[in-house]
Amino acid sequence: MPKKRRVFGPRKDSARGEGFGHSLLRLVALAVIWGGVLGGAFVAYCALDLPDIHQITQPQRRPSVTLQADDGTVFARYGDLFGDHVTLEDVPKYLPEAIIAIEDRRFYSHFGVDVWGLLRAVVRNVMASHVVQGGSTLTQQLAKNLFLSPERKLKRKVQEMMLALWLEHTYTKDQILTAYLNRVYLGNGAYGVDAASRLYFGKPVRDIDLQEAAMIAGLLRAPSRFAPSHDPAQAVLRARTVLEAMVEEGYITEREKRQAIASVPPPEHKPGSAGDGRYFADWVQDQIGPLVEDASQDIVVLTTLDLNLQRTAEHDVDAILARQDNKDVSQAALVTLSYDGAVRAMVGGRDYRSSQFNRATQAMRQPGSAFKPIVYLTAIEQGMTPDDVFLDAPITLGSWSPENFDGKYRGPITARDALAESINTVAVRVFQRAGIDNVIETAHALGIASPLAREATLALGASEVTPLELTGAYASLAAGGRAVTPYAIKEIRNRQGEVLYQHPDVTLPRVVSEQAVETLTGMMEDVVRYGTGKRAALGDRPVAGKTGTSSDDRDAWFLGFTGNYTTGVWLGNDDGHAMRKIVGGSLPAQLWHDYMTEAESGLSARDLLSGPPGGFTGAVTQDISKAFGDFIHGIMGNAN
Fold first, then answer.
1. pTM value?
2. How does pLDDT run across 508-554, given as a tens digit for each residue?
3. Which residues of the chain have pLDDT under 50?
4. Complete DSSP assignment for 99-125
5. Quick one: how many helices (H) and strands (E) in the chain?
6. Helix axes 210-218, 232-248, angle to 10 degrees
7. Are 500 and 292 in contact (CB under 8 A)?
8. pLDDT value of residue 400
9. Cβ within 8 Å of residue 15, ≥6 positions away
10. d(CA 95, CA 97)
């Protein structure tokens, strides 16, 4: 009987392989499905808190504050600066071409997200091992600028793409490009191409040339780095890269590129740098609020700053601190006032970039012997003369026994010589004769607003003051005993040119005896003529001043005035550590001399106490006198 043919089923390993394949396909399918579900859920999550898309026509910004020096030169800006709204017809055609060439070459062909551009950027970034190219289109950049924060997160990137798709669906390409031109940030608080053109080139955007257009387009990658105000050389190099891109895209010819490169580069110095009165600008900014009712409008502030004096001050402060033999001192402050209190220059520290703390207006420091003129003035008002003789000998008041700087005692000495040589024991005896309450009253009348301790150590300047208020007190002496209040704002206008505030033009009230100030001024001239302030002498014009060194050599001062300016200088360290061999008569007096030599250059030598060219004329109104009296009464009440 023939055997039945055996029918073989599939091998067990084949069945096992086929089952594994089916399982893998099922896993892949499940992964795709769940990936789609999770991806959709994430997109939905990103869409939950999308901002109001109607903001495209509702720009939100901080009002701009533009600060001008006394000659009208802009030296600082705050807030957000917007120029005129422009259309594509308002700007030279090479400006949008430059932006498209360097930022988004397929702008008119993509749908809001450039997939090929994204892939190209990913490849380049992977090859470079760091981010060297972005893949955002102009539409995405506009979406980010209009609606989103600059943080780099996946959620923000997805929202950016979603908003870009919405923009492309809602608006035409030209409308999107127009919105971009008006809303893009271009550094130094400037939003939009017209604001940038006015800021960097001083003209409306319709008047810019090809190189300037390339420079504006070059700002888009890094506004701070490539801004002409920050680094003109970098701005020019970046503009050349933009011009090369324009040639590659056929927007301009090689010849036009060469002509643009050969055009005149931007000025080497533009507003908004770290110098040119940044400390002063911050101080002014803090004063604007109470002077303007409507804080939401753009304003232009005309200040008292003299840019030539300011740059001289910054240069001289930097030079004196950079000397290799001055390692024990790290900071300085300098203030210059005109006869009426207008702040003409202000240096608040060594480097604004590293520290915005304004040592001229905020640092409370001991004035040391620089406070002595106030003590002597009080005694002069009560009858003391420069030739009165005092005993330079040890003195003890309670547990305090002040000593002279050199540790020596001279015996009988005139008040004139004692002030010139800054004799401490005599200053204490003069202080006793004048009376502590009277000295405090004189100090407040001259403009010292900080609290003064009712202690004998006040005679040697133990109570702390700011460089600005002490310089203001010396300015009151320079004004012949009239109350001088430092001020920085001359006028505030809005963008329409309407005057919102104007500094009042009033006669300065007299607060101390004119004859007493004349007597003291003669003694302070001797300080410079043969005393501790010899280094400050200017030679061709009279100078009255005083040195000051606090206990343990923590602070060193020189303050003085000519017939034109009053300037106060302070040197020290923020942490208060002592300076070796640096006293008021050394570096501060030298800095004062160097700076004032340049400040007075070209000015006529005027007599001290002569005041303004026309003199202090006019009378103080009863209301002003009463207000000033109330002010003095108030601060005296607080002090006592």
1. 0.72
2. 899 999 999 999 999 999 999 999 999 999 989 999 999 999 988 89
3. 1, 5-12, 14-15, 34, 37-50, 57-58, 125, 130-133, 148-149, 267-274, 617-640
4. HHHHH-TTTTTSSSS-HHHHHHHHHHH
5. 21, 14
6. 100
7. yes
8. 93
9. none
10. 5
- Interior/surface letters 145-168, b for 16+ CB within 10 angstroms, e for the rest: ebbbeeeeeeeebbbbbbbbbbbb
Cα 1 to chain center, whole Å?
A: 113
User: Could you give the maximum distance between any two Cα atoms of the chain, in Å?
Assistant: 156
Decide: helix, strand or coil at residue 500. strand
Q: Give the distance from CA 367 to its chain's centroid.
A: 26
The angle that helices 307-322 and 587-599 make with each other, rounded to 10 degrees, is 150
The dihedral through the CA atoms of 620, 623, 624, 627 has a sign that is positive
Active site residues: 103, 369
Q: What was the pLDDT predicted at 455?
A: 95
Cα(488)–Cα(148) distance, rounded to whole angstroms?
38
* Amino acid letter, residue 69: A
List all residues 6 or more positions away from 5 whose beta carbon is below 8 Å from its beta carbon: none
Burial 330-358 (b: 16+ CB within 10 A, else e): bbbbbbbbbbbbbbbbbbbbbebeeeeeb
Exposed / middle / buried, residue 129 (Cβ in 10 Å: 0-12, 13-18, 19+): exposed
Between CA 63 and CA 80 the distance in angstroms is 6
DSSP strands (E only) in 476-590:
489-494, 499-502, 544-549, 555-561, 566-572
Strand partners, 499: 493
Three-class secondary structure of residue 419 per DSSP: helix
| pLDDT for residue 301 | 96
Query: Torsion-angle region of residue 60: left (phi > 0), alpha (psi -120 to 50) or beta?
Result: beta
- Which pLDDT does position 19 carry in this prediction? 57
Q: Are strands 389-392 and 343-347 parallel, antiparallel or unpaired?
A: unpaired
Closest Cα partner for 591 from 564, 568, 561, 565? Answer: 568
Tell me what pLDDT residue 43 has: 44
Phi then psi for residue 64, to 5 deg, are -90, 145
Location of structure tokens 């004004």: 479
CA dist 127 and 113 (Å) reads: 23
Bin 589: left if φ > 0, else alpha if -120 < ψ < 50, else beta. alpha
Q: What is the pLDDT of residues 544-580, one digit of tens each?
A: 999 999 988 899 999 999 999 999 999 999 998 999 8
Name the nearest CA neighbour of 609 among 351, 375, 339.
339
Distance from chain centroid for Cα 191: 20
Q: What's the pLDDT score for residue 381?
A: 97
Domains (range + CATH), the chain:
74-261 (1.10.3810.10), 311-639 (3.40.710.10)
Return all residues near 571 (Cβ < 8 A) that are at least 6 apart: 320, 329, 331, 332, 555, 556, 557, 579, 582, 587, 588, 591
Token code pair at residue 374: 């106030």
588 contacts 337 by C-beta, under 8 angstroms: no
How confident is the model at residue 170, as a pLDDT? 84
Nearest Cα residue to 348 out of 367, 364, 335:
335
